């Protein structure tokens, strides 16, 4: 079984730490997916990391295919990032005043993402989407928000709403503690369904402040926009005077060298009104951002009436890490990510095919995931229809062989510039055995 391994000698320290952690922290973790509830077994407590490798407290080594859920695009402890962080920390940890690194990071982001004019820095992706939402509501004077089922935008009340039954229903609270009044301002629609979008905007268009979408969903597994879908989002929001927010927290600076995944080009040709970023741009430290054109961003305090602030926003150490990481994201890095991702995805496909395990691999740039089901996944209902038991067996067999996948069937697999031949070979060697385990 998947749980019997948790008592093996080689995970004794992780198991003991987890047991203690549960007494002082809910579920033993500070973010739920880390608890391994979806796959069973003992979460590995990681003691250190280098390049593409994680080492746990029992001394086991794993090829890292989580990469901190995206940020570690250059690999762990990249020398340039380490040096930048060290130098920044030498100068001070946090000032609560303006500092030069914040300006440098904002300049780098604005320089990379063509339509962006201004960004405001925050400390997490959740803060970025929450603030973008407030700005959109402030700018339009409207309150309703449209999101897609299966898209995750952080744990913002209005964005944790889950779909009710039917197509364009108002949402139900997606968590205890989210008031119905908050979820009730959210309309949840199926992804890749232009007709549902048209219908929702026809009915509620004048009340809708914004539509928020992952540039390419990665939080239900990778579900790329169907051809024309992103353009339809732009057209329909514009027709109804609503803003389009492209959540690039996961895709930003990962899917492509140009930084973003939405429709390329200036605002009047289809760029979103607001963007959110996180993960890669923080280089593994708490830094995130939201931005758009100067006129819209000018509505934020201190210039405008929309309040937004943060004690640690633009933190000097975090911005140093983000800046060094973005500067390290060269075209060669993206070529390498592409190559490594395709090598691993092809091998996973071959191994699962050979073992007779139904599966589908989907892509957004160099971001991919493996669904344990047959046939294309276009929306959340498709994604939910997979064999999560088969994934759990696959996951545990990979882990036993020293490859740490994201512990859920609904996640992208992340690679880094540091995934070299040794790391890739280790993954390729593990796949056939894991595929046979998945087949039951
Ligand atoms: N938006 C997207 C697309 C994400 O993938 C995430 C996190 O996974 C978030 C927002 C929230 O970011 P954070 O976890 O930094 O709050």
Automatic annotation (TrEMBL):
Enzyme kind, highest EC tier: isomerase
Catalytically driven reaction(s): (S)-4-amino-5-oxopentanoate = 5-aminolevulinate
The keyword Isomerase is assigned to this record: yes
Highest taxon above the source species: Bacteria
Pathway assigned in UniProt: Porphyrin-containing compound metabolism; protoporphyrin-IX biosynthesis; 5-aminolevulinate from L-glutamyl-tRNA(Glu): step 2/2
Compartments in which it is found: Cytoplasm
N6-(pyridoxal phosphate)lysine, modified sites: 279
Known cofactor(s): pyridoxal 5'-phosphate
GO molecular function: glutamate-1-semialdehyde 2,1-aminomutase activity
Pfam annotation, one family: Aminotran_3
Enzyme Commission number: 5.4.3.8
Keyword list, A-Z: Cytoplasm, Isomerase, Porphyrin biosynthesis, Pyridoxal phosphate
Keyword Cell wall biogenesis/degradation: no
HAMAP family assigned: HemL_aminotrans_3
Summary of subunit composition and partner proteins: Homodimer.
Entry-linked PANTHER family: GLUTAMATE-1-SEMIALDEHYDE 2,1-AMINOMUTASE, GLUTAMATE-1-SEMIALDEHYDE 2,1-AMINOMUTASE 1, CHLOROPLASTIC-RELATED
Family stated for the protein in its record: Belongs to the class-III pyridoxal-phosphate-dependent aminotransferase family. HemL subfamily.
Protein name: Glutamate-1-semialdehyde 2,1-aminomutase
């Amino acid at each position: 079984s998947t749980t019997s391994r948790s008592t093996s000698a080689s995970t004794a320290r992780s198991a003991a730490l987890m047991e203690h952690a549960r007494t002082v922290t809910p579920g033993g973790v500070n973010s739920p997916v880390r608890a391994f509830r979806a796959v069973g077994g003992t979460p590995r407590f990681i003691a250190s990391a280098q390049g593409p490798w994680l080492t746990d407290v029992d001394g086991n080594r794993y090829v890292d295919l989580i990469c901190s859920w995206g940020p570690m695009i250059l690999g762990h402890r990249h020398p340039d990032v380490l040096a930048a962080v060290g130098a920044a920390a030498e100068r001070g940890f946090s000032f609560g005043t303006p500092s030069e690194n914040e300006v440098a990071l904002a300049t780098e982001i604005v320089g990379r993402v063509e339509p962006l004019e201004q960004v405001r820095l925050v400390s997490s992706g959740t803060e970025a989407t929450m603030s973008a939402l407030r700005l959109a509501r402030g700018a339009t004077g409207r309150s309703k928000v449209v999101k897609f089922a299966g898209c995750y935008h952080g744990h913002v009340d209005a964005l944790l709403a889950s779909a009710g039954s039917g197509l364009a229903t108002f949402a139900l609270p997606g968590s205890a503690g989210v008031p119905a009044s908050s979820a009730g301002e959210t309309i949840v629609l199926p992804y890749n369904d232009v007709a549902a979008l048209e219908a929702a905007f026809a009915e509620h268009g004048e009340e809708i402040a914004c539509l928020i979408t992952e540039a390419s969903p990665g939080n239900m597994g990778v579900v790329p926009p169907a051809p024309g879908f992103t353009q339809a989002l732009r057209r329909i929001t514009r027709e109804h005077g609503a803003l389009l927010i492209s959540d690039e927290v996961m895709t930003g600076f990962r899917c492509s060298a140009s930084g973003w995944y939405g429709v390329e080009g200036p605002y009047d040709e289809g760029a979103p009104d607001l963007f959110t970023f996180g993960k890669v741009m923080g280089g593994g430290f708490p830094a995130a951002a939201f931005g758009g054109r100067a006129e819209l961003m000018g509505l934020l305090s201190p210039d405008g009436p929309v309040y937004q602030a943060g004690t640690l926003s633009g933190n000097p150490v975090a911005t140093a890490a983000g800046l060094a990481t973005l500067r390290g994201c060269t075209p060669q890095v993206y070529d390498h990510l592409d190559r490594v991702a395709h090598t691993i995805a092809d091998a996973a496909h071959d191994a699962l095919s050979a073992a007779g395990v139904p599966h589908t691999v989907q892509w957004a740039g160099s971001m991919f995931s493996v669904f344990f089901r047959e046939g294309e996944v276009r929306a959340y209902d498709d994604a939910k229809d997979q064999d999560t038991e088969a994934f759990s067996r696959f996951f545990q067999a990979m882990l036993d062989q020293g490859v740490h996948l994201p512990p859920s069937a609904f996640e992208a697999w992340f690679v880094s510039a540091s995934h070299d031949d040794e790391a890739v070979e280790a993954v390729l060697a593990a796949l056939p055995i894991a595929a046979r385990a998945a087949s039951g």
